[in-house]
Amino acid sequence: MAALAIRRLFLLPGRALCLSRRGYRGDAPSDSGRDLLEIPLPPWQARPQEPLETKRARLLYESRKRGMLENGLLLGFFAKENLNQMNEKQLDLYDRLINEPSNDWDIYYWATEAKPAPEIFENEVMEMLREFTKNRKREKRLRQPDLE
């Protein structure tokens, strides 16, 4: 009954063009970007004196706690599978990869090859991560891996 009354309201002469104009029609002004707040992060610093086992434990934690689910899962599984086999140089490259970029989406796009990585991150660890991301074994990676 209510639907019929609404239909009659819009079909009255002179009301055919009175449909709501609240919807987005593409005529919004361009974004000025003035409300964008960029928070400066401290620069990444290598930790050459850090013991390897401490570094592996820290990198595992930092891989799991990314602040975005996609990278938490991707890097958490990658770290669990690879950190124990990495040498010190590879651990340093991985440390730089996950801690220097200020935007986690960049890491995700580089790993999934949606965007090219900067030259500084094109190395053996990035190759390992890209190969891992392809998930050739079709593993289910729907939640963080168990800690052991």
From TrEMBL:
Q: Where in the cell is it found?
A: Mitochondrion matrix
Keyword Chaperone set for record: yes
Q: How does it assemble?
A: Interacts with SDHA within the SDH catalytic dimer.
Q: What does this protein do?
A: Plays an essential role in the assembly of succinate dehydrogenase (SDH), an enzyme complex (also referred to as respiratory complex II) that is a component of both the tricarboxylic acid (TCA) cycle and the mitochondrial electron transport chain, and which couples the oxidation of succinate to fumarate with the reduction of ubiquinone (coenzyme Q) to ubiquinol. Required for flavinylation (covalent attachment of FAD) of the flavoprotein subunit SDHA of the SDH catalytic dimer.
Q: Which PANTHER family match?
A: PROTEIN EMI5 HOMOLOG, MITOCHONDRIAL, SUCCINATE DEHYDROGENASE ASSEMBLY FACTOR 2, MITOCHONDRIAL
Protein family membership: Belongs to the SDHAF2 family.
Designated name of the protein = Succinate dehydrogenase assembly factor 2, mitochondrial
Recall the taxonomic lineage recorded for the source organism: Eukaryota, Metazoa, Chordata, Craniata, Vertebrata
